[in-house]
Amino acid sequence: MTNNNSRFRGLFIPHVTPFNDSGVLDLASLARLTTRFAALEGVAGLVSCARIGEGPVLTLDEKRSVYEQAGKAAHHAGKLHIATIAPQSTDEAIFLLRDLAALPIDAVMIFPPLLFAWGKVGGDLKVRFFEDVARSTKFSLVLFQVPVQSYWYDVETICRIARIDQVVAYKEASFNIDLFADTMQALERQNASMEVLTGNDRFVGESYKLGASGALIGVANVATEKWAALDIAGRGGDFDKAMAIQRELESIKELVFGEPIVEAVARIKIVLHQEGLIKSAAIRRPQLGISDADKKHLLDSYRALTLNANP
Q1: Distance separating alpha carbons of residues 77 and 181, to the nearest angstrom
Q2: How far is 274 from 301, CA to CA, in rounded Å?
Q3: Can you give the pLDDT at residue 137?
Q4: Do 98 and 86 touch, CB atoms closer than 8 A?
Q5: In angstroms, rounded to a whole number, what is the distance separating the alpha carbons of residues 95 and 110?
């Protein structure tokens, strides 16, 4: 299968999944949010049911509803839609991909199975997983480098997986700039066609200098236009401008993704609720959310930061 991998360049938003106050999926808010994101200039596409989208706590039926709505919004705006799955076996991955066949999806991002981090796992197992999955589907596939060292794909393994035609893109979110740089250099030597989307919000601007062709970052749920401008500058080779925008966004990134990072989803939803994009900031357990005092600090700080950024 031949893919036009260049379509997978630019800023991709792994959008949140709104719930109502009772914890039920809020499709009206999801439609409003995804329509808004997809319409923005500089946004290449939407990513559904990733970690920021609380994919791990959604049922399969709920995920289908999210995929359907996000895909409709993305395609209506002429953008791409990437669905996320988190299979634990090859058979499960194949089942999930077949289940998605009738939905408005352009590619599927696969979270690495738990077994990939079970002791010292060699590259052969990981490569074979993607070879078997690719043979079973017509979907384009996107890799995900989890920001946990035991899960990391090493450089050699990434280069081997990149040779699979259906693997069109790679979210590199190791948060390790040396590994990122080594990976980019190796892929360039291989003349790989796989696009690399940085998931490293700590060094987004630097990622473009190192060869990234886009970004797939949860923090882009807020201040989205600014992240889109950074992406456009970075892909256009204006690294000074990209770095300047990154410095503008540093405080917002730290505000949203401060420790405990697991509550970043709660913080993003609070901001989106305040902006009227979602009806409720509800999250699902085991996330605990943040205190009322922290919520007030978040909103006061975010308001001040955005006012300073947009005088």
Answers
A1: 34
A2: 13
A3: 96
A4: no
A5: 13
Q: Do residues 73 and 31 touch, judged by C-beta distance below 8 A?
A: yes
- Per-residue pLDDT tens over the stretch 212-251: 999 999 999 999 999 999 999 999 999 999 999 999 999 9
Average the pLDDT over 196-207 and give the result: 96
- 97-142 pLDDT per residue, tens: 999 999 999 999 999 999 999 999 999 999 999 999 999 999 999 9
Is 220 in contact with 11 (CB distance < 8 Å)? Answer: yes
Alpha-carbon span 226 to 233, nearest angstrom = 11
CB neighbours of residue 93 within 10 Å: 23
Range(s) of the domain holding residue 97: 5-246
Question: 213: domain CATH number?
Answer: 3.20.20.70
Packing angle of the helix pair 90-99, 123-135 (nearest 10 deg): 30
Total number of domains constituting the chain: 1
Between the alpha carbon of residue 221 and those of residues 11, 16, 40, 180, 266, the distances in Å are 11, 8, 12, 23, 12
**pTM of the model as a whole:** 0.96
Flag whether 65 is in a domain: yes
